[in-house]
Amino acid sequence: MPSSRPQRREATTMSTDGEGPVKRRHHVVPNFYLRRFADEKRMITRVPLGGGEVRTIPTKDATVQTDFYRLEHPELRPDALEDALAGIEADIAPALTRVVDQGAWPPSDEDRFWLATFVALQYLRSQSTRSGIEEITRSIGKLELGVMSTDQVREMLGLSDDASDAQVEELRANALVTADTFAVDRHAHLRYLLDGLEGTTNLVMGRGPWALILWERKVLGTSDSPVICVSDETTGFYSNAGFGMARELIVPVGRRACLVLGKVGGEGEDQRLAGNSARARLINDYTLRNARREAFHHPDDQPFAGREVPKRRDREIQVSGSHIDTLIRDFARMQGRPSGLPGEESSE
């Protein structure tokens, strides 16, 4: 680990100045990365999960979401975070070029830092991370609201003692109707990204050994979730393996290149390996299974040929809604009140 790291553009460097219109088209996967899988015209083939038309599109239009990183802050431009991310990417891109394309392996301390930053940032900035935060927030909020006593709900809502128990329970029931679907403020994800970037980068830096796998003929694709966490399961893959607990991280970094980062605290010399057909097939399988909404590949390639394209992933966290509902019913029964859950209007 380098003793003196390159300075990263953090939130404190986000400018309030800036000229021109606010940028609203935000890449969830950076354009410079997608171009590594594109042709000379910067076109890339998009494979939608769950069916749909396979189309070749400009990389500038891939994984774009409107206002995904938009800030609502009196002292910052709405696109200040988008600008800060672009600044970090400006340091990551040449490091990736040096290591993957120019053969600077093993990476220098500085390039290792920027590659680790790329892996950490891509994991944190993704739609999958945002969706997971939203699902956890909704589940915890629903459980907290559902198990509170009537008096606790009255206090939480700031109601007077004149509000009857029936009125309080009606308000609880109305809130529980949307408990599984209410909009979560995107700033929860943005705070998580900013607060967690340094620690997550350190976690990546602490993995070992690192390997760069290169192919001469076989090709790789990528997806909207390019950081793949591989567990210790005998199958070698588990879609919900935790970022820190994963046995290794796999990140395709080009049509014929992939980074494999060993376990946290692992030791050993960094390696540059020649890829074979079996390994390319395995990584492309991982890529499809780890995708959330879409996968991508070079227009001239067919890395996913013969493979079943999975359904779009709609949930990140395997929280049992029925278990939460059961807990809410049990607490309601003990407190002698209605559960407030939709379709359950009387005390159980």
Strand/helix succession: EHEEEHHHHHHEEEEEEHEH
Query: What share of residues is helical?
Result: 25-40%
Per DSSP, the total helix count is: 9
- Counting helices, strands and paired strands, the structural category is alpha+beta
Largest sheet: 5 strands, mixed
Q: State the end-to-end CA separation.
A: 60 Å
Q: Roughly what fraction of the amino acids lie in strands? A: 5-15%
Number of domains: 1
Rg computed from alpha carbons, rounded to a whole number of angstroms: 23 Å
- Structural shape: elongated
| Contiguous runs where pLDDT drops below 50 for at least 5 residues | 234-240
Strand arrangement in the largest pleated sheet: 7-8-9-5-10
Organism: Nakamurella flava
Region (Disordered): 1-23, 295-318
Pfam families: DUF4238
InterPro entries: DUF4238
Model description:
With 348 residues, this protein is of the alpha+beta class. The chain has one domain (25-334). The chain has helices at 31-34, 80-101, 109-125, 127-147, 150-156, 165-177, 187-205, 277-290, 321-335, and strands spanning 25-27, 43-48, 55-58, 64-66, 210-214, 222-223, 228-230, 248-254, 257-261, 271-274, 294-297. Residues 308-317 have a biased composition (Basic and acidic residues). It holds the Pfam family DUF4238.
